[in-house]
Amino acid sequence: MNKRVDRLLQSGLFFFLIATVLLWAKSYLAFRFSFSLDLENTIQEYILALTPLGSILFFLSLSFIFPKAKRIKAFLTLYFIMTFVLFANVVYYRFFNDFITIPVLMQYKNFAQLGGSAKSLMSVTDLLFWVDVVALFVWARMKKGQLSLSVKKRTMGAIVATSLLAISLNLNLANEERSELLTRTFDRAMFVKLMGVYNFHLYDTVMTANTQSHRVFAESDELTEVRNYLSSQKDPKSENFGALEGKNVVLISMESLQNFAIDYKVNGKEVTPFLNDLIDDKNSVYFNNFYHNTGQGKTSDSEFLLANSLYPLPRGAVFTTNAGNEFNGTPEILKEKGYTSAVFHGNNDSFWNRDVMYPALGYDRFFSKKDYDVTPENSVNYGLKDMEFFEQSMPMIKSLEKPYYTKFITLTHHYPFVLNDEEDVMIDQTQTGDGTVDRYFQTARYMDEAFKKFFEDMKANGEYEDTVFIMYGDHYGISENHNRAMSEIMGTEIRPFEHTQLQRVPLIIHSPGLEGKTVDTVGSQVDLKPTILNLLGVKNENDIQFGTDLLAKDREDLAILRDGSVITDKYVYDGDSEKCYNKATGQEVEGSECDDIAQKGQTELNLSDKLVYGDLLRFLEDEEEPLTNSPNKEK
Ligand code: GP9
Ligand code: MN
């Protein structure tokens, strides 16, 4: 053999570089063609191509930690593991349309389920995943004794530096595409698209370790502490217990809808004409002092509140960090009453980890993107347009056994509030010059029209009479970055007082036969679960819940927001600025007047966090009376 070639084949550095390029190419091809990642633009194409490089260099350079004599072996082992991880994800994806996570590996019987069909999921072409592995093993074997990874320290440094550079470049580009990717929105498909499979596993490992450490140190007497606090609080008596017993339930999560849009007019036209009429209907109860308690988990946080009457977490989305916890979700409780539960949503099922969290909450069925006909023509922004979404959902809802407990999650009225079809535009934009705010009213108007159609369809299909509709805004749509434009809309300066008041979202409970009224009690999403269970006549005494029935007469007016703000009938305390205001007049008052409520807010949030981080509800079953059957996680 040519001497130069021979020398090259003995060079550890050459071996390292060739292996890196092979794994890089293989990973890219797998990311690109084995997963459907919905690449939206050329930047995302570039990111996907770049993304494996940093992590491959990083992981393979871990072989430098080993003594020189063992380095080639360590290197090949790492190479093998990375190929295995890639390959396992590819096979898993074929079956589940999702990526492997540690909690899924530990808690679910997914792999057992996959076991039988694993063979049928593989094909001869899969051998291509292993060709390079074999080639590298053969190469190392042939050059045994000569091939060594004893590279200079400087070279090692250069490799590690390149890997870190590639990772941070990747992270920056990913963040431009999706801000706060690591903390806020967490969708596995999105993460893999922007950060790759290897980084995803690294992230998943860190997150799992963090959650587990909290859990391991938690003790059952902490649950007693929570219980003691809750029993020291006022326990209002429900007056509507069982008023809607046996009815079907249709919850509608109204994306980004804040209460200020209700009754608002742009150029003389109502933004929410259907909702305005519904509020005035004799069978509707409307809450005009109802707040959201969501944090970074946005929609998923509101779903968490609704199902559990616990607060979401101060950081991250509890749907992704603590999906392995024990919960007593509303769907699970209602199962005992003979209810079938389902969620309808036109987006990826792994978004917000819903595919994992829903079974844990006791949902029987999740109709997600794969159940709908989603095309570029009937989609905008995040996915399926609301109008199409409701229309296509009709046969699905009809297929459910009654009584049903369902949740519809709308999508079109989502930041950045865009419509792509002239006929969907039914109202003018406002003229503040802030595009986000100006467009907000158009998508809200569109969503309102979709509700109107949905109600008509429900009536036409005979699904209306026996059903209670509970419609709530999931979280704010306009953040404080838009205060200038919002002050124009509201006709007043946006101080911390107005900012806190803007966290009100609409809540409407509508059902034929329900006595209509407008209720001004101060409440929040944490109160939904007890309100719903009471209306349906379900006793839930042993459960831990922070909310109270919104329809109970002697309930305490209270809303504790995730940022520590607290609202009562008298005060508005802004957790951020720590300012205290008179609720009726909006006048700032002595800060000390809010001390008590601020303290109460903190106590309650801390206890709820402790409960979630420590997975304390798992101790509930050890207490004298079991609450419900153990959750049917494997479904
Ligand atoms: C995604 C949808 C929107 O499926 O629920 O999520 P958001 O960004 O509003 O939390
Ligand atoms: Mn949302």
TrEMBL record:
<dbReference type="InterPro" id="IPR012160">
    <property type="entry name" value="LtaS-like"/>
</dbReference>
<dbReference type="GO" id="GO:0005886">
    <property type="term" value="C:plasma membrane"/>
</dbReference>
<keyword id="KW-0464">Manganese</keyword>
<keyword id="KW-1003">Cell membrane</keyword>
<dbReference type="InterPro" id="IPR017850">
    <property type="entry name" value="Alkaline_phosphatase_core_sf"/>
</dbReference>
<feature type="binding site">
    <location>
        <position position="299"/>
    </location>
    <ligand>
        <name>Mn(2+)</name>
    </ligand>
</feature>
<keyword id="KW-1133">Transmembrane helix</keyword>
<comment type="similarity">
    <text>Belongs to the LTA synthase family.</text>
</comment>
<feature type="domain" description="Sulfatase N-terminal">
    <location>
        <begin position="247"/>
        <end position="538"/>
    </location>
</feature>
<keyword id="KW-0812">Transmembrane</keyword>
<dbReference type="Pfam" id="PF00884">
    <property type="entry name" value="Sulfatase"/>
</dbReference>
<feature type="transmembrane region" description="Helical">
    <location>
        <begin position="78"/>
        <end position="96"/>
    </location>
</feature>
<protein>
    <recommendedName>
        <fullName>Sulfatase N-terminal domain-containing protein</fullName>
    </recommendedName>
</protein>
<dbReference type="InterPro" id="IPR000917">
    <property type="entry name" value="Sulfatase_N"/>
</dbReference>
<feature type="transmembrane region" description="Helical">
    <location>
        <begin position="12"/>
        <end position="31"/>
    </location>
</feature>
<keyword id="KW-0472">Membrane</keyword>
<dbReference type="GO" id="GO:0046872">
    <property type="term" value="F:metal ion binding"/>
</dbReference>
<feature type="binding site">
    <location>
        <position position="414"/>
    </location>
    <ligand>
        <name>substrate</name>
    </ligand>
</feature>
<keyword id="KW-0479">Metal-binding</keyword>
<feature type="transmembrane region" description="Helical">
    <location>
        <begin position="46"/>
        <end position="66"/>
    </location>
</feature>
<feature type="active site">
    <location>
        <position position="299"/>
    </location>
</feature>
<feature type="binding site">
    <location>
        <position position="255"/>
    </location>
    <ligand>
        <name>Mn(2+)</name>
    </ligand>
</feature>
<feature type="binding site">
    <location>
        <position position="474"/>
    </location>
    <ligand>
        <name>Mn(2+)</name>
    </ligand>
</feature>
<feature type="binding site">
    <location>
        <position position="475"/>
    </location>
    <ligand>
        <name>Mn(2+)</name>
    </ligand>
</feature>
<dbReference type="InterPro" id="IPR050448">
    <property type="entry name" value="OpgB/LTA_synthase_biosynth"/>
</dbReference>
